[in-house]
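Q: Got a minute? One more chain.
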Amino acid sequence: MKKVLYISYDGMTDPLGQSQVIPYLVGLANRGYKITILSAEKPNRYINGRSYINHLLSKHGIAWEPVMYTKRPPILSTLVDIFKLRSRVKKLMKLQHFQIVHCRSYIAPLAGLMVKRKQRAKFVFDMRGFWADERVDGGLWNLANPIYRAVYNYFKKKEKQYLEVADHVVSLTQAAKNEMQGWRKIKLNPDKISVIPCCADFDFFNIPSSDKRKQMRVKLGYLDMELVFCYLGSLGTWYMVQEMFDFFIVISEIYPEARFLIISGDSFNKPKLVCDLDTNKVKLLSAKRDEVVDLLAAVDIGLSFIKPVYSKISSSPTKQGEMLAMGIPMIVNSGVGDVDAIVEITQSGIVLPENTKEAYQIAAMQIVTLVRKNKQEIRDKAIKILDLKVGVEVYNTIYGNMTGEKEKE
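A: Always. Here it is, folded:
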């Protein structure tokens, strides 16, 4: 049985860990891999969620080694966390020998590469996205500040190192893979890079029955004739919240019965964002992962507007897989990862060429056609690309090719 050390700076008690880490590792554990997760956990989430996560992971034979995430001060707190991760890795290497070290994003390899050097483990660089560029594009690192500029340059050098020494690289999008193959600073063998988008559990996210839909619309106070648009996910940094409200205002002028449901753990300044809109048309709800499926049962159309900046060519919105799994058509903006291509392949929605009132008005005229799309057809096309089982099988192939054997299915 091959032993795998999976290192993540994202916590398993975070929503992201529960949707984009654990389901894949459970799938791999069920194929015979002995997995240990090392993760940085936010203290409050860890206190509230550790029992659930412990039970879930132990049920599948997955060991969990959490360290506590440090939030402040900037930069110094990250250095503290890197020390914690490295210390725990050293401890784990004394206890067992790992054949694979699988590192998520750019912080994890600062600890994980020790395993490759000292135990000759195969190194999977699961880069997720262009992390350093995302920090700049999201306004988190101001390059006018010499400290942040130095940190950015450091991680761009690390990015090159990770790509060069990795036994395999995982990218979220084909667009990012194409971009990297055009980089002059490094030559990458395309066979060394696999594309695995943010997948969804199609067994968990399923098309609701008509009774379930009616039940949830009554619970949320929506009438049968009302048209429910939905945004699912975080509200800050790269997500174009104001533009989605601007779009909804245009929609509301044509369809007075339109309603906007926002499912997010974040808060927003409602009066500022909806100053030109009847606030009774907008709901903001927070939900746990198992509650999201119920809420989405009431939805007609999904929205996802993300800033089309350079780093976002490597982005794969989790919400796209989850909504398409439930047969919900989507309206998205162009220039974000493979989102355009997936909408085209699955014929699941509308891609806005630009975020202007004119583009919104053109899209509004296609709403009737959009809501009439066959949910099962959307799901059937999306499952070939975005199903969790597809992602797990690619990881299984990567592991098997690196270790010289493919674990049982």
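A: Residues 329 and 372 are 9 Å apart (CA to CA).
Q: Perfect, thanks.
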